[in-house]
C-alpha cells in the first residue's frame, strides 16, 4: 500500500471517528436538554403543588391553633350608634375558644367618620376567652382577657349571654322564662357586644363561623327557640350612644384578666 493510500485511509478513519464523536455529542446534548426540560417541568409541578398546598393549608391541619379572620364593616353608619355583634363559642371538646375584636387607630381615617379630619380615629384591642353558651352543659363562660381603647370608645355591653330583646315567634306559646314581650333579657345561646358605627373592625378567632352582626338601626333576629311549653325570639338593634341600655364605657388595661376582677364588668349569664 502506497503512502498516499495509507494517508487516504487514515483520513477516512479519522472522519468516521469525528462523525461518531459528533453524533455522540449531539446525543449527549439531546439527553441533557431532555433532562433539563424534565427537571424544569418537575420543578414547575412541584412549585404549583406547593402553592396549592400553601393556599389551602390551615394551622388546624398542622396540629396548630387555627386563626380565622373576619371584617365587621360598619362604615357609612352613624358614629352616634352602637350596633350588635354576636357569636357562639364551641364547647368543651375545643378547649378554650379565643376571639379578638381589634382595629388600628387610623383605620377608616380616609372616610373621616367623625368629620374632624383627624387620622386618630379610634384604637381598639379586645381579647376574649370563652366556652359554649348559657344553655349549654359544658364549662360555659366568657372572660375579658384584655381590653384597650384609645382616642374614642368603640365597644359596649360585652356579655356571655348577649343583652337583647325578648319577642314571641308567632305568639302560639308563652315566652320563655315568663319574659314579657319587649323585655331586655340575656341571650341563652349567643354571647355578644355592641360596636360603634362608622368604622371597620377585625375579628380574629380560633373557631370556624358562628359570628354575626347587624348594620340595621331597627330590630333583627339573633336567633330563636321553641319547645312544647315556650317560645322566644331574641332580637337585637342599634342603640344611641347615650342609651342606658349600653351601660358604661370600659376602661383600658393591657394586664390580662384585670377586667375579670372589676365588678362593673362581671359576666352575667
Task: Summarize the model shown.
This is Phage tail fiber repeat protein. By secondary structure, the chain is of the alpha+beta class.
Helix percent reads 10-25%
Total domain count: 2
Contiguous uncertain segments of 5+ residues: none
Give the structural class: alpha+beta
Q: Main sheet? A: 5 strands, antiparallel
| Separate helix tally | 1
- The overall pLDDT, averaged over residues, is 87
The 3D shape can be described as: elongated
First and last CA, distance: 117 Å
Oligomeric form: single chain
Strand content: 25-35%
Radius of gyration: 34 Å
- For the biggest β-sheet, the strand order reads 1-10-3-4-5
The overall strand count is 14
Could you give the order of the helices and strands? HEEEEEEEEEEEEEE
Question: What does this entry look like structurally?
Answer:
With 269 residues, the protein is of the alpha+beta class. It has 2 domains: 1-57; 66-265, no CATH class. It is built from 1 helix and 14 strands; from the N terminus they run H-E-E-E-E-E-E-E-E-E-E-E-E-E-E. The protein has one helix spanning 3-56, and strands spanning 68-73, 81-87, 97-103, 123-131, 141-150, 155-159, 163-167, 184-186, 191-196, 200-205, 211-213, 220-226, 231-236, 239-240. The strands form 3 sheets. A 5-stranded antiparallel β-sheet has the order 1-10-3-4-5, with no helix packed on it. Strand 12 (220-226) and strand 13 form a beta hairpin. It is elongated. It starts with a helix and ends in a 29-residue tail after the last strand. The model has no long low-confidence stretch (mean pLDDT 87).
Amino acid at each position: 500500500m502506497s503512502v498516499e493510500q495509507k494517508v487516504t485511509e487514515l483520513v477516512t478513519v479519522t472522519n468516521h471517528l469525528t462523525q461518531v464523536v459528533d453524533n455522540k455529542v449531539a446525543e449527549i446534548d439531546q439527553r441533557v436538554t431532555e433532562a433539563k426540560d424534565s427537571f424544569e417541568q418537575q420543578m414547575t409541578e412541584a412549585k404549583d403543588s406547593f402553592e396549592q398546598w400553601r393556599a389551602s393549608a390551615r394551622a388546624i391541619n398542622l396540629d396548630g391553633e387555627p386563626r380565622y379572620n373576619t371584617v365587621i364593616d360598619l362604615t357609612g353608619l352613624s358614629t352616634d350608634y352602637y350596633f350588635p355583634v354576636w357569636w357562639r363559642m364551641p364547647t368543651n371538646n375545643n378547649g378554650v375558644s379565643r376571639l379578638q375584636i381589634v382595629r388600628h387607630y387610623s383605620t377608616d381615617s380616609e372616610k373621616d367618620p367623625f368629620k374632624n379630619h383627624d387620622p386618630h380615629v379610634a384604637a381598639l384591642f379586645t381579647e376574649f376567652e370563652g366556652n359554649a353558651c348559657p344553655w349549654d352543659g359544658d364549662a360555659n363562660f366568657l372572660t375579658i382577657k384584655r381590653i384597650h381603647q384609645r382616642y374614642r370608645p368603640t365597644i359596649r355591653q360585652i356579655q356571655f349571654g348577649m343583652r337583647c330583646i325578648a319577642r314571641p315567634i308567632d305568639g302560639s306559646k308563652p315566652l320563655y322564662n315568663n319574659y314579657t314581650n319587649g323585655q331586655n333579657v340575656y341571650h341563652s345561646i349567643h354571647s355578644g357586644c355592641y360596636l360603634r358605627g362608622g368604622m371597620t373592625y377585625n375579628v380574629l378567632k380560633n373557631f370556624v363561623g358562628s359570628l354575626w352582626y347587624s348594620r340595621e338601626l331597627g330590630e333583627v333576629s339573633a336567633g330563636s327557640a321553641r319547645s312544647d311549653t315556650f317560645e322566644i325570639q331574641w332580637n337585637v338593634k342599634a342603640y344611641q350612644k347615650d342609651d342606658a341600655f349600653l351601660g358604661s364605657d370600659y376602661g383600658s388595661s393591657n394586664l390580662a384578666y384585670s377586667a375579670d376582677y372589676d365588678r362593673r364588668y362581671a359576666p352575667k349569664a
